[in-house]
Design brief:
This protein has 2 domains: about 200 residues, 2-enoyl-CoA Hydratase, Chain A, domain 1; about 45 residues, Lyase 2-enoyl-coa Hydratase, Chain  A, domain 2 (Orthogonal Bundle), CATH 1.10.12.10. The radius of gyration is 19 Å and the shape is globular. The chain has a 6-stranded mixed beta sheet with strand order 1-2-3-4-6-9, sandwiched between helices. A 3-stranded mixed beta sheet has the order 5-7-8. It contains 13 helices and 9 strands. It is α/β, with parallel strands linked by helices. One of its GO terms (biological process) is fatty acid beta-oxidation. One of its GO terms (cellular component) is mitochondrion. Pfam families: ECH_1. InterPro entries: ClpP/crotonase-like_dom_sf, Enoyl-CoA_hyd/isom_CS, Enoyl-CoA_hydra/iso, Enoyl-CoA_hydra_C.
């Protein structure tokens, strides 16, 4: 695949409200994660996360009612060895680029998100999906296991029993079930439209405060309660040094909309 084709694997646009819409664009392969698509996605996420104009990121498929991602490209994956996977840290960068982004990342899933595709969504901050969307971790059926956070992030979200059942059975479950399990926000109607609505609301808040909130919640998964509470208090107190904090409270008292300046 040449460089121009590689670039077309990811479509990105940024609107006037600072919402970056990133689309996986490999429809002929159901957005399967080839190494070129992975590299392009990592590069794009890193770039838009550093873009001062961007306030929120949405990740979705290029077809608004089609697949999010079918997961790893098995035609490539079957050629990997243990040493080659270690050498390139296969899937590690794409998972970490999403989970470590400073800006909020919302996944919008209308079709299916399987294997590595599901793991991409799990690495995002919020998943929005249709009731008929399909989620699963079918890696055991092709002789491997989830390798981009599926065993870890899903277990933290739904508990050992549900995660173990989903992985060992290879069953595919609906977006409605993901909503009931608390993994995703299940949306009737246009999923991307609802994702965009929430993104616009997030984009209206103070950028630094949004990042403080994201940091606090993200660290909750990795720390004991006492340490997490201490971290939360520190971040909470640090928000008081922001002029946006004073503006938000003053606007509330004065019964007007706040004018945040990201300061």
């Amino acid at each position: 695949m040449n460089s121009s084709n590689a670039a077309s694997l990811i479509q990105v646009s940024i609107n006037s409200e600072g919402i970056a819409l990133i689309k996986l664009n490999r429809p002929e392969k159901r957005n399967a994660l080839s190494q070129q698509l992975i590299d392009a996605l990592v590069s794009t996420v890193t770039r838009v996360d550093c873009d001062e104009k961007v306030r929120v990121i949405i990740l979705t498929g290029s077809n608004p009612v089609g697949p999010f991602s079918a997961g790893a490209d098995l035609s490539e994956l079957r050629h990997h060895t243990t040493s080659s996977a270690h050498a390139i840290q296969y899937l590690a960068q794409v998972s970490s680029s999403l989970s470590a982004a400073r800006k909020p990342i919302l996944a919008s899933v209308a079709g299916f998100a399987l294997g590595g595709g599901f793991e991409l969504a799990l690495a995002c901050d919020i998943i929005f999906c249709s009731p008929t969307a399909k989620f699963g971790l079918p890696e055991l059926s092709v002789g491997t296991i989830p390798g981009a956070g599926g065993t870890q992030r899903l277990t933290r979200l739904v508990g050992r029993q549900r995660a173990m059942w989903l992985m060992l059975s290879g069953e595919v479950v609906s977006g409605q079930v993901m909503g009931e399990w608390g993994v995703a926000r299940c949306v009737e109607g246009d999923v991307l439209k609802e994702t965009m609505r929430v993104a616009k609301k997030i984009a209206s808040w103070s950028g630094p405060v949004v990042q403080l909130a994201k940091e606090a919640v993200r660290n909750a998964e990795e720390t004991h309660l006492d340490a997490g509470l201490k971290l939360e208090r520190g971040l909470y107190y640090s928000s008081f040094s922001l002029s946006d904090s004073k503006e938000g409270m003053t606007a509330f008292i004065e019964k007007r909309n706040p004018i945040f300046k990201d300061q």
